[in-house]
Amino acid sequence: MVELPWELEEKILSLTTAKSLTRFRSVCKRWNTLFKDELFVNDHLSRSRPQFILLVESKICIVDVNLDGQSIEVHDLPQFDPGYGVLCDTKVECCDGLLMFSTTRGTGICNPWLRLIRWNESILDKPSGIGYDNSTPDKQYKIFSSCSSYTTTLHANIIEIGSDASKSKTYEFAMEFYSRSSVSLNGTLYWIAYSRVCYEHCIQTFEFSTERFEFYCNLPTKRS
Predict the structure, then answer these.
(1) What residues contact residue 6 under an 8 Å CB cut-off, 6+ apart?
(2) Residue 208 in contact with residue 131, Cβ under 8 Å?
């Protein structure tokens, strides 16, 4: 078979849907490396069509907006299995397109492109976010879960997605989170918190590479 010039091959791949790129990672090492390249990722994202997740009472949908053809496609994501709780009890977190559904009976990790979901009934301890160690080239996604506490001690579990390996950690912690929900950026988790020491509102982070909480910045507050 005559090989295409690499520039043309890369151009064709940049026009391919994200769902197909997910499967194409295993074709060869060169393609897998390309899909991690920042320039390729930015080029592919610039061509992507708007999509969003719709959470309704009975199901979860992914909505695909086609601006060229002026059409909207709605696809159902995997339904919740009986016993995992209803959607009104569900908290959704996201990281790099992966969705984490936290319910009263377990936690599910969903790949909306492949429309697949994997449930883990053992993760019940208030999952707060999903991220990864950004100090290594290969992303090993992990779940951070903790027990909220108003004392200076916070007990947490770090669970690897795939192997379900769990690690328990205890932190001396003088912060109060405004919400269990976090924002994941480049594998790091961010929360809005309140320091019981400095009496300041701030942004607190958790780095999976060091497995440590870090102060990010203070937030402007209006004092009386």
Answers:
(1) none
(2) yes
